Amino acid sequence: MAQEPQIVTDTRPEPPDTGNEREILCGFLDFLRATAVFKAQGLSDADAARRVLPSLTTVSGLLRHLADVERSWFRERLDGQDGVPTRWSDEEPDGEFLVGADDSLAGIIKDYEEACAESREVLSRYSLDDISLNTASGHNVRWILTHMIEETGRHCGHLDIVRELLDGTTGE
């Protein structure tokens, strides 16, 4: 049985109304990152891990997926780092969605926020026109930021739906 939703204060940063291209792109990405966390807050660990759809999609799984995507795009692809951890693998392509009883929502949110901080640190060393160091992708920073806005925004929509199915919470 789902718990009653808790009132959570909305502290998301608003994207800038004006600014240069980088400020606007980063502002929208940070807003969406904060929205993903906002959508998860107030849930119990059990509800955050509860499946309400036929797929493996859960609130906790979506946040873990987003953490892995942050690390993959910014640390591995853009910065060319080796050994960047992800929960998916050839053996378990949906590994980030496999949430266990020992996985706390607070820990999952903390890991996602750490992944976002790692991404910001990597991003601070590059201009929008720089090409990723992982030559397999060949994308520039502008493309990666735009893709991450799309990726994070799409999953915020999933979080909206899953949260509403869990406890009826709706809203921005």
TrEMBL record:
Q: Where is this region: Disordered?
A: 1-20
The cross-references to Pfam families, in alphabetical order and at most eight, read: MST (PF04978)
Which Gene3D superfamilies does the UniProt entry name for this protein? dinb family like domain
Report the InterPro entries cross-referenced here. DinB/YfiT-like, MST-like
Name of the featured protein: DinB family protein
Ranges annotated as spanning the membrane:
none
The residue ranges flagged as biased composition, category Basic and acidic residues, are 11-20
